[in-house]
Design a protein that fits this description.
The complex is a heterodimer of chains A (about 150) and B (about 110).
Chain A lengths: L1 E5 L2 E9 L8 H13 L3 H21 L2 E8 L3 E8 L7 H4 L9 H4 L8 H8 L2 E7 L3 E9 L2
Antiparallel strand pairs in A: 1-2, 2-3, 3-4, 4-6, 5-6
Helix pairs in contact in A: 1-2, 2-5
Chain B lengths: L2 H8 L2 E4 L10 E4 L3 H7 L4 E5 L4 H10 L3 E4 L7 H10 L3 E3 L4 H11 L3
Parallel strand pairs in B: 2-3, 3-4, 4-5
Antiparallel strand pairs in B: 1-5
Helix pairs in contact in B: 2-3, 3-4
The chains are: A alpha+beta (about 150), B alpha/beta (about 110).
Chain lengths: ~150, ~110
């Protein structure tokens, strides 16, 4: 949903329910529609929404859900994904392609390829991860507009 | 080539069509791991997979593939069919395996 609309800045906030694959992707899907309406380039839209979807899915699978925020300006798009899940014990390991802790039932759905965080890094210009084991994780991604 | 032309050329069944059949297909990608597909499939690809769930449709939308082709007669489940209709995603289907479908698609697209 839209929170406020300052000059040249739009903010959106979404609740991402945990273990709910039916609604997974609604936040990124909504942001995609907004970016299209605002006339951002297909490349910016694709990079933003894929990264955001990966983050949403991570929260659904690993953290029991969380919240997603998007701040859109003409120069950049900032995405925040905030959860109170178990945290990431070894971020460097989690960043490696192919590393995954997703259970088998999640893999059967096509997730758990160990590409979520690598994709988020690949498609964004900045990726910051703050995580505390037992408390939660905040991911901040920025996609710059050329 | 449009999705409809590709379906006709290769004898694929149409599991979800409508306006989405007019989309252009420019290449192909095979894979069932969703993040892998999102990270590597080019926009406009014919995505060949056995994943017929709603998350696959979500990935098809985000990756902006030209169409999904379900291999080995994999089912498009009810929720996925609904999401495909809502999001205008063309879904084709074939009894063939992914390799054979890829060969057919490559031939039709002159790749």
């Amino acid at each position: 949903m839209i929170e406020n609309d300052k000059k040249d800045e739009m903010r959106f906030h979404y609740d991402v329910p945990g273990d709910d694959f039916t609604h997974a992707g609604e936040a990124s899907g909504n942001v995609k529609k907004v970016l299209k309406q605002l006339g951002f380039s297909p490349d910016v839209i694709r990079r933003t929404t894929i990264s955001m979807y990966e983050g949403e899915i991570n929260m659904v699978i690993h953290a029991g859900g969380g919240e997603a925020k998007a701040i859109i300006t003409p120069e950049k798009i900032d995405i925040f994904l905030i959860d109170n899940g178990p945290g990431i014990p070894d971020v460097n390991l989690a960043m490696q392609e192919g590393y995954s802790t997703a259970p088998d039932k999640i893999r059967a759905l096509g997730f758990g390829a160990g590409m979520g965080l690598p994709n988020m890094k690949k498609y964004t210009d900045d990726l910051e991860i703050e995580t505390v084991v037992g408390k939660g994780t905040t991911v901040h991604m920025t996609v710059k507009v050329d | 080539m449009t999705v409809k032309e590709l379906a006709e050329a290769c004898g694929f069944e149409i599991a979800n069509g409508g306006d989405a059949l007019d989309k252009t297909v420019t290449g192909g990608y095979c894979g069932d791991l969703l993040s892998w597909v999102m990270g590597r499939a080019s926009a406009g690809s014919a995505w060949i997979t056995v994943m017929g769930n709603e998350n696959a449709i979500a990935v098809a939308v985000l990756a902006e593939v030209g169409c999904v082709i379900l291999a080995q007669s994999a089912e498009l489940d009810g929720q996925a069919a609904l999401r495909a209709r809502e999001n205008n995603v063309a879904v084709l289907k074939s009894g063939k395996g992914a390799f054979e479908i890829a060969v057919n698609v490559a031939g039709a697209l002159n790749l």
